[in-house]
Specification:
Order of helices and strands: HHHHHEEEEEEEE
Number of strands: 8
Strand order of the largest sheet: 1-2-3-6
Radius of gyration: 44 Å
Distance between the termini: 105 Å
Strand content: 25-35%
Structural class: alpha+beta
Number of helices: 5
Length: about 230
C-alpha cells in the first residue's frame, strides 16, 4: 500500500506524483481538510510555473546599450565621490592650518598677564559668584567670594572698561561701613573691549564677612560709579 504524507500536497498539486501515489493522495484528500485547502494555492503556483520556459530561467547577456549606460553612470558616480573626498580633504587641511596659525599667534603674542591670575580665576570657579552689569556704562563682569577667618576673599573679573582710569573695588556692609578691596589702573586700550578683548582679573580682601556684606561698587578714584553688584 502506498504511504501518504501531508508533505505530498505540493507534489500532487504540481503533477509530480506517479499514478499510484496520485490515487492514494486523492483518497487522503477526502478525509484531510488541511491538505485539501492547500492544494488550491499550490495549483495556482503550478499554473504560473507551467507558463515559464526553462530557458527563461537562464542568465541572459546584457544589452550592450544598457551595459554601456550602466558603466558610464558608475564612472560618473566614482568621479563625483572622488571630487567630494578631495573637497573634504582640502577643507580639513584648511581647518588644521587655521588652528596651527592661531596657536602660533597665541604663543607669539602671549597671554595678557592682567587676564591670567590664578588665585582670582580659581575663586571665580569655586566661590560664590555674582554678576556685575551696568548698561549705562557698558561695564560688566563677575565678583567671586570666599569666607575666611579674617573676613572675605574677593575676586573680580571686569570687562567693558576703557582707560586711562584709576579704579577701585569697594565693599559696603549692611551697616554702611565701606572698605577698599583692591585698586588698579586701566591702560588706554582698556579691558574687555574691541582691540583688547581680555578681561581684567584681580583679587583682594575685606574684613567684612559675607553675612555682613551688602554690595560692591566698581568706581573711579574720583567717586564715579562704573558698576554696582548686590550680594
Amino acid at each position: 500500500m502506498t504511504e501518504v504524507h501531508h508533505e505530498d500536497v505540493a507534489a500532487y498539486a504540481l503533477g509530480l506524483l506517479g499514478e499510484d501515489d496520485r490515487a492514494a493522495f486523492e483518497r487522503h484528500l477526502e478525509g484531510c481538510a488541511a491538505c485539501a485547502g492547500e492544494v488550491g494555492s499550490f495549483a495556482a503556483m503550478g499554473d504560473l510555473m507551467r507558463g515559464v520556459h526553462p530557458d527563461d530561467l537562464l542568465p541572459h547577456p546584457q544589452d550592450p546599450e544598457v551595459e554601456s549606460l550602466l558603466v558610464r553612470r558608475a564612472a560618473a558616480e566614482r568621479r563625483r565621490r572622488g571630487l567630494h573626498r578631495a573637497v573634504m580633504t582640502a577643507a580639513a587641511c584648511l581647518v588644521v592650518a587655521a588652528g596651527v596659525f592661531l596657536a602660533a599667534s597665541s604663543l607669539t603674542r602671549g597671554p595678557n598677564p592682567d587676564s591670567v591670575h590664578s588665585p582670582a580665576a580659581a575663586l571665580l570657579l569655586t566661590g560664590r559668584t555674582y554678576d556685575v552689569s551696568d548698561p549705562s556704562t557698558g561695564v560688566s563682569g563677575r565678583v567671586g567670594l570666599e569666607d575666611k577667618g579674617w573676613g572675605t576673599h574677593v575676586a573680580l573679573e571686569l570687562r567693558g572698561v576703557k582707560g586711562p582710569l584709576q579704579c577701585r573695588l569697594m565693599a559696603v556692609g549692611d551697616d554702611g561701613r565701606s572698605e577698599v578691596v583692591a585698586s588698579w589702573g586701566v591702560p588706554d586700550k582698556g579691558y574687555g573691549v574691541p582691540g583688547a578683548p581680555d578681561p581684567l582679573l584681580l583679587h583682594g580682601a575685606t574684613s567684612l564677612t559675607q553675612d555682613d556684606l551688602n554690595h560692591f561698587t566698581v568706581q573711579t578714584m574720583d567717586g564715579r560709579i562704573l558698576a554696582t553688584v548686590a550680594v
